[in-house]
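Service request form, structural biology core

Requester: graduate student, group of Dr. S.
Request type: structure prediction, single chain
Budget code: on file
Notes: please return the result as structure tokens.

Sequence provided:
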Amino acid sequence: MATTLHTSRTEASLRQELALLSVEYAELLAHVRAAVAAARDGELDPIVHLVGFLEERGQLPADGVSASRLVAEAFARTADTDRQFGGAL
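Core staff response, request fulfilled:
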């Protein structure tokens, strides 16, 4: 029988990390939705709603990196994570 040790510090840490991830996800989703709305409204540069968000986090893609490569790399990371959890994701 496997025993998992959970301390209150560990649980608090995990809750805090989950809360931070939830906030980051909500903020990213808001920026993506703003870019879509801006494109629909005919704004000249709707991507500006995403650039600042990514720039603040050091996540702007390097010059010359294609969109398809970025997506392929993300799918590969997702597949790796899924395998780590036995296909549960």
